[in-house]
């Protein structure tokens, strides 16, 4: 089967070409065992990282010492970093530039080097998700930060430079283009239909079940209709909410369960592939209220999980089209077979 599908969220086109596809067992995935020599993220090596910004700790333990369960530090080699003053936009002829103001943090997910996200306890995952929430809330107070992205790189081909389980946060002085596209489409759909496009998307996927991987009381995991990559998976809250940072403790517990199960399915069925997961949420409230009125009604936060099973090559770079060799329906069926 070969067909083009239009992504309803950002109106981009994707080519689904299953004639070029492979079964999960056919993907060549590097599966190197973890080799621990000296790890700066391990408990006891707190002095080898930048100072602690936030942590969940055992009662009675001091910051920058052992006894933590989840720990946040500044990235030692940041893409952006906090400076005094504002983000200054400069024009140089036909070009624009800006100083590299922002923030880049590392969320160390566990003291244990050999634990992966999918085999952490639910309690540990809850603490990670609560840490994400707290960092969103804290950084949203800085009016210079216009967007906060939390993401995880897993495996060498997923971009992870250190094996110890961790995720990252980058706060930027501008809203990234991908997010702008989602916000724009959400606004257009709401003005046309009077409803959230993501809410309608979720209802459609629950009703059809064609691409549904998992449904719980509070969340769904789906293989999106116009998936860009083989086995791309989205996790979305069933109850409308534009902002991850407004998630309740009860909803965090439910999210921990579906994330653990979904990542386990991907690991088991796809031979432990490298992957990325990304949280897409609305920009900080004060800023977005000015720029996008009523955004809380229009947008819907979600998590995108992208197994790194294929390479982006010349056609994709040249056109912006993605070629996905596994149909979303087949991917959902395979992941559901556990």
Beta content comes to 15-25%
The rough form would be described as globular
How are strands sequenced across the largest beta sheet? 3-4-7-9-8-13-14-12-11-10
Helix tally?
8
The level of helicity is 25-40%
Report on the biggest sheet. Answer: 10 strands, antiparallel
Q: Can you count the beta strands?
A: 15
What is the C-alpha radius of gyration, as a whole number of Å? 20 Å
Calculate the mean pLDDT score and round it: 91
Keywords, please?
single chain, about 350 residues, alpha+beta, ten-stranded antiparallel sheet, three-stranded mixed sheet
Task: Provide an overview of this structure.
By secondary structure, the protein is α+β, with helices and mostly antiparallel strands. The protein contains eight helices and 15 strands. Helices cover 28% and strands 24% of the residues. Helix 1 crosses helix 4 (249-269). The chain starts with a strand and ends with a helix. The mean pLDDT is 91.
In brief:
By secondary structure, this protein is an alpha+beta fold. 28% of the residues lie in helices and 24% in strands. The strands form three sheets. It has a ten-stranded antiparallel β-sheet with strand order 3-4-7-9-8-13-14-12-11-10, sandwiched between helices. The protein has a three-stranded mixed β-sheet with strand order 1-2-15.
């Amino acid at each position: 089967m070969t067909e083009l599908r239009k992504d309803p969220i950002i109106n981009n086109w994707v080519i689904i070409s299953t004639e070029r596809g492979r079964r999960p067992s056919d993907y060549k995935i590097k599966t190197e065992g973890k080799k621990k020599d000296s790890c700066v993220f391990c408990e006891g090596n707190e002095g080898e990282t930048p100072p602690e910004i936030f942590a969940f700790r055992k009662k009675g333990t001091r910051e920058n010492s052992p006894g933590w369960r989840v720990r946040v530090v500044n990235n030692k080699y940041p893409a952006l970093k906090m400076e005094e003053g504002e983000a200054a936009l400069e024009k140089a002829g036909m070009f624009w530039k800006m100083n590299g103001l922002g923030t880049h943090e590392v969320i160390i997910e566990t003291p244990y080097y050999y634990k992966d996200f999918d085999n952490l306890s639910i309690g540990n995952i809850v603490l990670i998700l609560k840490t994400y929430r707290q960092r969103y809330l804290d950084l949203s107070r800085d009016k210079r930060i216009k967007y906060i992205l939390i993401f995880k790189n897993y495996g060498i081909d997923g971009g992870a430079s250190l094996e110890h389980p961790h995720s990252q946060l980058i706060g930027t002085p501008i809203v990234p283009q991908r997010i702008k596209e989602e916000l724009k489409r959400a606004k257009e759909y709401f003005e046309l239909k009077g409803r959230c496009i993501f809410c309608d998307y979720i209802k459609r996927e629950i009703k059809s079940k064609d691409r549904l991987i998992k449904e719980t009381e509070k969340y769904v995991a789906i293989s999106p209709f116009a998936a860009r990559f083989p086995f791309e998976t989205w996790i979305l809250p069933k109850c409308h909410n534009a902002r991850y940072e407004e998630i309740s403790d009860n909803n965090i517990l439910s999210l921990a369960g579906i994330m653990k199960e979904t990542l386990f399915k991907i690991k088991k069925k796809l031979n432990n592939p490298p992957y990325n997961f990304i949280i897409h949420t609305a920009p900080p409230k004060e800023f977005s209220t000015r720029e996008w009125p009523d955004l809380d009604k229009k947008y819907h936060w979600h998590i995108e999980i992208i197994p790194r099973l294929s390479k982006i090559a010349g056609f994709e770079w040249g056109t912006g089209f993605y070629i996905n060799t596994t149909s979303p329906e087949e991917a959902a069926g395979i992941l559901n077979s556990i």
